């Protein structure tokens, strides 16, 4: 077995692992990233596309914002389409100047991979059988296999950035974790197409036949979603059926503007809320999807990964530079305060805008009335806006 050494061993080369790796590397803290998949596979995944200001700032701080700043689309608002009526949520005015950036996670990942390669920092792709050991000691280590050889990686800390199905969370004894979960009885069928977006801003539509979302990746690439039953099969949705159903769920004048075209990606994702507490076990820290999942309705998944990264990065900086080891045990509580607020908002947006097969007439009326109250009240719209642009990051002191 070959022995390697690093300061922070990072499991997973998704946005969490790559962004943490870049920030630490820039600060002179050594990292090694272990990724189960190939670089091409990681790069090919189509995921979210709305970045909060906090994440945009963090990408700038990490020195990986050049393309985002040139090609990303700043959105100062979005539309809610409720039973045929459009309501504009003016993010900028309602939040005193904040907005979001439309820039795909695929592009964020590409920029981070390029920056890491340019910096000469190592990511081992197709690393298998990753396992973390002695996490409760001051000398944790990680074993893995790579290109037919077995390695032992010695480190100070392990960052579990390996997503919902990763090994990091599973290496914590079950009795040390509490799991909070809600599974929704529907999924999102998503389509990517090289067609101009239907509208300059995102449109979130509530309709009796189910929720629909009109999003985009650029001025020439659209991303649309439809609420579908959780057990729906992709084969049941040829492009034409998708476009027809989308038009049905949008207000008439908007639907008329829809430009259709062949899909370049189509997939169904289940919706889930999930949080594990605490997000730390000894010298192992969980970040991003490894610790929490939100339904995509509030566009919070990627942004929560960024706030976890910011928190761990700022703590580790103070640990290495100022010996502030007292901060390590604060990681989980700091993250979870923000995580739960985003969980609440994502759950609320999901509950308000989707059709629930089990809902009785009373619950439907309550949801309808809650939504009407929110959109007709300045305070209500402000609440939606300040959550959508992203709640502030806590200072690390
Ligand atoms: N060993 C090594 N790597 C692993 C392992 C393992 N056992 N298990 C999973 N991985 C890798 C995955 O292949 C993936 O590349 O960890 C990475 C995790 O990346 P993501 O799932 O993208 O998670 P994260 O980096 O936390 O990104 C935040 O939030 O809502 C979502 O769309 C958003 O995917 C984004 C996520
Ligand atoms: C997306 O563009 O993929 C997207 C946008 C907003 C959401 C969810 C997904 O709320």
From TrEMBL:
<feature type="domain" description="FAD-binding">
    <location>
        <begin position="5"/>
        <end position="346"/>
    </location>
</feature>
<keyword id="KW-0503">Monooxygenase</keyword>
<dbReference type="GO" id="GO:0018659">
    <property type="term" value="F:4-hydroxybenzoate 3-monooxygenase activity"/>
</dbReference>
<dbReference type="InterPro" id="IPR050631">
    <property type="entry name" value="PheA/TfdB_FAD_monoxygenase"/>
</dbReference>
<dbReference type="InterPro" id="IPR036188">
    <property type="entry name" value="FAD/NAD-bd_sf"/>
</dbReference>
<keyword id="KW-0560">Oxidoreductase</keyword>
<dbReference type="Pfam" id="PF01494">
    <property type="entry name" value="FAD_binding_3"/>
</dbReference>
<protein>
    <recommendedName>
        <fullName>4-hydroxybenzoate 3-monooxygenase</fullName>
        <ecNumber>1.14.13.2</ecNumber>
    </recommendedName>
</protein>
<dbReference type="InterPro" id="IPR002938">
    <property type="entry name" value="FAD-bd"/>
</dbReference>
<dbReference type="GO" id="GO:0071949">
    <property type="term" value="F:FAD binding"/>
</dbReference>
<dbReference type="InterPro" id="IPR012733">
    <property type="entry name" value="HB_mOase"/>
</dbReference>
<keyword id="KW-0520">NAD</keyword>
<dbReference type="GO" id="GO:0043639">
    <property type="term" value="P:benzoate catabolic process"/>
</dbReference>
């Amino acid at each position: 077995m070959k022995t390697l050494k690093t300061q922070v061993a990072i499991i997973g080369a998704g946005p969490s692992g790559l962004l943490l790796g870049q920030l630490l590397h820039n600060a002179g803290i050594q990292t090694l990233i272990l990724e189960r998949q190939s670089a091409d596979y990681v790069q090919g995944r189509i995921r979210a596309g709305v970045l909060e200001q906090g994440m945009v700032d963090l990408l700038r701080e990490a020195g990986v914002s050049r393309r985002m700043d040139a090609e990303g689309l700043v959105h100062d608002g979005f539309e809610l389409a409720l039973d045929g009526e459009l309501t504009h949520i003016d993010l900028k005015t309602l939040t005193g100047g904040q907005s979001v950036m439309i820039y795909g996670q695929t592009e964020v990942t590409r920029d981070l991979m390029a920056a890491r390669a340019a910096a000469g920092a190592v990511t081992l792709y197709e690393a298998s059988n990753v396992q973390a050991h002695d996490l409760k000691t001051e000398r944790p280590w990680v074993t893995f296999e790579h290109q037919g050889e077995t390695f032992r990686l010695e480190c100070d800390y392990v960052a579990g950035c390996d997503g919902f199905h990763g090994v990091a969370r599973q290496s914590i004894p079950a009795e040390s974790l509490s799991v909070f979960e809600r599974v929704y009885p529907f999924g999102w069928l998503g389509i990517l197409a090289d067609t101009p977006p239907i509208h300059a801003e995102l449109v979130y539509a509530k309709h009796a036949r189910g929720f629909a979302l009109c999003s985009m990746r650029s001025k020439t690439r659209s991303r649309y979603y439809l609420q579908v039953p959780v057990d729906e099969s992709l084969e049941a949705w040829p492009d034409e059926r998708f476009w027809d159903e989308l038009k049905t769920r949008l207000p008439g004048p908007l639907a008329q503007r829809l430009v259709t075209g062949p899909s370049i990606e189509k997939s169904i994702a289940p919706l889930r809320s999930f949080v594990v507490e605490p997000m730390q076990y000894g010298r192992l820290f969980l970040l991003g999807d490894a610790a929490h999942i939100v339904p995509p309705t509030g566009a919070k998944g990627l942004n929560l990964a960024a706030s976890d990264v910011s928190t761990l990065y700022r703590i580790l900086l103070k640990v290495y530079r100022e010996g502030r080891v007292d901060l390590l045990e604060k990681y989980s509580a700091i993250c979870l305060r923000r995580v739960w607020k985003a969980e609440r908002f994502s759950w609320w947006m999901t509950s308000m805008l989707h059709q629930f097969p089990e809902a009785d007439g009373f619950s439907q009326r309550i949801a309808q009335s809650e939504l009407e109250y929110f959109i007709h009240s300045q305070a209500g719209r402000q609440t939606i806006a300040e959550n959508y642009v992203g709640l502030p990051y806590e200072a690390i002191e």
